[in-house]
Amino acid sequence: HIAVDPYKKNPRVTYEMLSIGKRFHKYGGYDDYQMDSTFMSDPDFNPNHEEYVEWGRQFEDTRQDVVINLETNTIDYYYNKFWYCNRYSEPIPEFAWELEDGEEDVIGYRCRKARVKWRGREWTAWYSDIPVDAGPWKFRRLPGLILKMEDATGQHKIEAIGTKDDVYPMGYVDSLYSRRTREFAQKAEKDYCENFGKIIADSGMLLEPAEELERLRRSKKRRFYAPIEIVGAE
């Protein structure tokens, strides 16, 4: 997934993974899968806190996951950054796809073209003949598995680079996350990223002189922010 922050203009590449199960689909960081696989393959792996933090540095820090429940037709979204641990639920969205002429090969699969306008962005998708209703993020409702997507602004390009067969458990401790509405969670993420310096300075977690905290507040320090869904868009 190549994303571009429109303010910083810098691209960020993250490796993400779509997991397809009988009752659930999950889309999130490949780092989660790598870390879970380590614990599953080595039952004696039991690092202390410092060892865990150091070990975790080798993995990407994606920290946002979409879990689709096929039995209830709902989506659970989990976001974990700093002290922002939010989750929300919503019905699986509908997508007004327009099927278009055009074909492209993606990891050896012949894919067809479709477009959709959804939550503030216009997307082009390439879907295969694999008979699975799924795709990146929350996208679905095409005749086959979606293997590639791009938005019209060029801020997002998501493309499959491979597949694998595996079995691994999937779950979250819901009590660790504050249940929010989608609107609240998205606004909180936006505020956290766009006003990071002020939020950190006002958090009470930094033992710095008052002038340093004031400098941080005025620094307009930001975190990378390129949301797939535009805040306030439907």
TrEMBL record:
Highest taxon in the source lineage: Bacteria
Name listed for the protein in its UniProt record: GLPGLI family protein
Originating species: Lepagella muris
